[in-house]
Every structure is written in C-alpha cells, then in structure tokens.
Amino acid sequence: MNMTLLSAYILAVLMLLLTPGPVVALVTGTAARYGSRRAFATVTGTNGASLVLIMLAALMLAGIISFSPLFLYLLGTAGSLYIGWGAMSNIRAVSKKSSAQETTLSGEAGGFVRGFLTGISNPKDILFFVAFFPQFIAVTQDFTTSIMTLSLVWIFFDFAVLSFYILMIKRWMPERHARRIEMVSSLFLLAVSMCGILYNAKEIFTRYA
Description:
Blueprint lengths: L2 H16 L3 H13 L1 H26 L7 H27 L3 H8 L4 H10 L2 H10 L10 H30 L5 H31 L1
Helix pairs in contact: 1-8, 2-3, 2-6, 2-8, 2-9, 3-6, 3-7, 3-8, 4-9
C-alpha cells in the first residue's frame, strides 16, 4: 500500500467534498426543508452515482471503454441542464404559498432518485473521476485492490461529509430558516448549472467550431 499516495487521495477527496457543489446544495436544501430522513436517502443516491462513475473510470483505465472529449463536454452540458431544471423546480416550489401545493411538491425534492441523478450528472464529479481519479490507481500493486480501496475511501468520506452537513443544518439552523436555506441552495444550483453550460459550450465552440 502506497500510504503517501493514499493520503494525497484522501486529501483530494476531502477538498472536493467540502467545496460547495450541486450535491452539497441539494443535500443541505433537502435537510432544511424535508428533514434528515429524505436527506440521507438523497446521500444514498449520490453514493450510488459515485459508484457508477468509479466503475466507468475503472473500465476506462482497463481499456474496455473510452470517451472522446466531445462526448464528455456534451455529457457535462446535459448534466448542467438537469441540475438547472431541478433548481428551477425547487425555486418554484419554495415560492408557492399554499400548503396544499407544498404537500404536492414535497415528494419531488431530494430522495434517492433525485440524489442519484444529480450525482451522475454533476460536472464536478464527472471531471474528478475521469481526469483526476486515474492518477491514484497505483495506490496498490493490484488493479482490482486499488479500485476497491479508492472506492471505499470515497464512499466513507462522501457519506461522512454529507452527513455532517445534514446534522449541521438540523442541529444549528433554526427551523424558521428552512425555506430560506432551500432557496439559497436552489439559487446556488442554478448558478452552477449556468456556469457549467457556459463552460462546456465555450469548449465545444473553441475546439470543434
């Protein structure tokens, strides 16, 4: 086991997870408005998405599949559009004043499926697993062991960091601020979506126009 490389990987994972992004915004917004149970279901979905991205990265490293840069830019654009759509849906839901409307829409926020789709379409995670993750594959001398080790480290810290965000929101944020927190989270998601769309569109136009 290359402990120096493993330590560098752990540090990189922590920096990525602690940096606000679409997943953190979705989880904190869900925790504030709909409670810990739905927020943890969301975390389970994002963890599932991470496992899928890790599997794709492993298949790329094994030479079984390959993705062109254009495909990755298009995938990033599609992911940004989905995140933007989800953000707009949340903003509209938060803006509703009727309790009946809130009851109808509450099932759409967070949850396993929403967490999975946000995680799998998160441009930050896609970039990490496609471009950054392969640099740590030499953490052990066996390819399969390295993939398992890196996957377990990611899942552990991903769940731990997101759980910390959930507990922080539920313990230290007053309940009366729940609507405001979700609105801020949704606006952040919308901003991330717009930046992702602009960045990928710029790269596609620059490279392929």
